[in-house]
Amino acid sequence: MTDLSTQVHGIYIDAPAEKVWEALTSSEYTNRYGYGGDIEIDLRPGGQMRHLTTDQMKTMGMGDVAVLGTVVEAEPPNKLVLDWSAAWHDEPPSRLTYEITQGPSGLTRVTLTHELPESPKTAQDVAGNGKIEEGGGGWPWELASLKTLLETGKPMTTAGA
Amino acid sequence: MTDEDLIFKALADRTRRLMLDALHEKSGRSLSDLERVVAGHAEMSRFGVAKHLKVLAAADLVIMRKKGREKLHYLNPVPIRLIHDRWIDKYSEAHVVSLTHLKNISEKPHD
To answer: CA-CA distance, A36 to A57, in Å (whole number)?
Structure first.
């Protein structure tokens, strides 16, 4: 069986680190890439994070919240650490770390580390299974669509699905 | 070389694909661990395995992380996703469309 307890996902995005930070933490952006939905986040240690569901997720039977989190560390625009729980599984919170570093060429490196030693079902979902249409894109797809949005200004056609 | 060149070059080697498969099965492996995996299939020095890791890292398919005193290597699936979006989707979609078309033609009632 595949061990997904620690996942590392890295991507280069041709955008300033500040813009990547904004895209991760403001609803203006979160609705236009990945799974979509508003985000509410209190960017200080102990602050709450709620990633809300889209209308489509609600028709699939989900409640108001897709992901619930607590801010562990917020260092704009370079580091964001969260205790992160998927609302669709009853599992202990996992640890999600975004490291955002802009290089001299202007490219920004985003490295997402997700540690989920006690949340195997969540781990499987966020790793992605390639079935994009069924919502199985996971982090690789989410990050690819973030890159597309920030580099082209266009949301991916499946955003919010 | 472009990013894409680096990825295809990295994938164009059996030992490197073996290493990626091992990291897919269990990510976060040390060099010694990967050496053992490779040793089961081919004769290769530690230096040889390290060299392959370097190629995989240059293609961003492997990310190295320090954990205490140990250096661990993690599979990065994102570049594969990007290659998939750029290359695979495009062609497989065409196949699906033409097969659907064929199905429609062949299933049309003959009159």
So the answer is: 10
CB spacing of A10 vs B60 below 8 angstroms: yes
Give A77-138 as a 3 state SS string.
CCEEEEEEEECCCCCCCEEEEEEEEECCCCCEEEEEEEECCCCHHHHHHHHCCCCHHHCCCH
Domain CATH number, residue A135: 3.30.530.20
Give domain status of residue A160, yes or no: no
Residues of A in contact with B28 (CB under 8 A): 6
* A106 part of a folded domain: yes
Give the range of the structural domain holding residue A62, as residue numbers without chain letter. 6-152
Partners of residue B82 in chain A, C-beta under 8 Å: 11, 144, 147
Q: What is the DSSP pairing of strand A6-13 with strand A108-115?
A: antiparallel
ipTM of the complex: 0.88
* Structure confidence by residue, pLDDT tens digits, A49-68: 999 999 989 998 999 999 99
